[in-house]
Amino acid sequence: MIEKSKINEIVSSYKKPVIATICSHSSLQIFHGAKQEKLKTIGICLQGKEKIYDAFPLAKPDEFIFVDSYSNIPVSELVSKNAIIIPHGSFVEYTREKIDDLAVPILGNRNSLIWERSREKMFNWICNTGLKTPKVYSDPKTIDRTVIVKFSGAKGGAGYIIVNSYEEYVQKVDEKKVMVQEFIDGIRAYPHYFYSPLNKTGYPVSNGSIELLGVDRRIESNADEIGRAIYANAYTKIGFTVVANEPLVLRESLLCEYFEIGKKVSEAADKLFGGIPGPFCVETIITQNMEIYTFEISARIVAGTNIFANSSPYSVFMSKKPLSMGRRIAIEIKNAMKANKLNEIVY
Ligand code: AMP
To answer: Which atom belonging to ligand 1 lies closest to the Cα atom of 150?
Structure first.
């Protein structure tokens, strides 16, 4: 992993930071937010994909750098242009371990992406928060209730299966590297947070504050419309492949607990690997008894924030100007630049 001091050295030479990311996932929102804040933008793009941005001119990056493959990030060109990379889900997916050594400043803490990448490390992080989590079965022989079996390379829940006993597990699962987790019956809520070590005006956490910019839930195929298939007698088996996101507004009485969830995730990150400046998301399920289970963290911007490209039902209470997560990122970079503290929000 590249040394933090090396990234500090690079970023200390920046005159005017430019926002760069791979043209996918939440890039329209990231470019749009940066443009609203008058920051220059670079899209790392495959030939042909730029047409999408012609169709959305207000979110078109000022410049494209074309690559043959998203795993080949043009490092020196980005640094020469004073770029700060905004990592999103596709960025992390395409670059994988290569991201650890990229000699370009990345918004946030690249250590967190390592913790996000490994299911075991991620669960360790969640356990360190002290939040309620689904029971994990390290020995499938002890399965005593409905569980969800998560495969290691699965993208967005694709291929997960549900089993009810060890016998069913043996029948249906032949992979070794899986996580077996208690299936929680309830409503999924995925809050989007922004942690700033520079800003003191949000919900206080040990070294700064967090803001709640929105909440979504994913629409997963076929889990979210399975009732139709059951009625039509066309039911095969439940699946969790993410296909879209929809907005949620939580009961106001839940906000206290959700701020605490964000705070605990952020403070555990401080303790384990030096914090998570910038956006992050926590996946939770609320049961009928109003118990909240936390089962996953995304240590970066999530696609669920795309619903709120202008404002969210929460950001309107924080900002007079329209505020998306993309714009919040740009504001943080500008504030850090002004205070000469860019090194506190990148690695
Ligand atoms: P994940 O890969 O952990 O984000 O999970 C993908 C999807 O699987 C989630 O969005 C949920 O719909 C479902 N899921 C994951 N874990 C659980 C769980 N412990 N209980 C119920 N559903 C789950």
So the answer is: 2
**Mutational pocket test of ligand 1: of 160, 164, 220, 281, the residue with most ligand atoms within 8 Å of the beta carbon:** 160
Report whether residue 283 contacts ligand 1, using a CB cutoff of 6 Å.
yes
Over residues 58-81, the pLDDT tens digits come to 999 999 999 999 999 999 999 999
Q: Whose CA is nearest to atom 17 of ligand 1?
A: 183
pLDDT of 187-238, one tens digit each? Answer: 999 999 999 999 988 999 988 999 999 999 999 999 999 999 999 999 888 9
Distance of CA 54 from the midpoint of ligand 1 (Å) = 36
Sign (positive/negative) of CA torsion 4, 10, 13, 14?
Answer: negative
3-state secondary structure of 156: coil
Ligand 1 in reach of 22 Cβ (< 6 A): no
The finding on whether 123 has its CB within 6 A of some atom of ligand 1 is no
Q: Is 285 exposed, middle or buried (0-12, 13-18, 19+ CB in 10 A)?
A: buried
pTM: 0.96
Nearest to 58 by CA among 286, 310, 263: 310
Handedness of CA 324, 326, 329, 334 (dihedral sign): negative
Q: What distance in angstroms lies between residue 1's CA and the mean position of ligand 1's atoms?
A: 30
Q: Is the CB of 160 under 6 A from ligand 1?
A: yes
Residue 157 pLDDT grade (very low, low, confident, very high; cuts 50, 70, 90): confident
Query: Is the Cβ atom of 220 under 6 angstroms away from ligand 1?
Result: yes
Query: Residues with Cβ < 8 Å from 295, sequence gap 6 or more?
Result: 126, 133, 134, 181, 184, 283, 284, 285
Q: In order of start, what are the domains of the chain with their CATH numbers?
A: 1-106 (3.40.50.20), 111-134+184-321 (3.30.470.20), 141-182 (no CATH)
Rg (alpha carbons) of the chain, rounded to whole number: 20
265/282 Cα distance (integer angstroms): 8
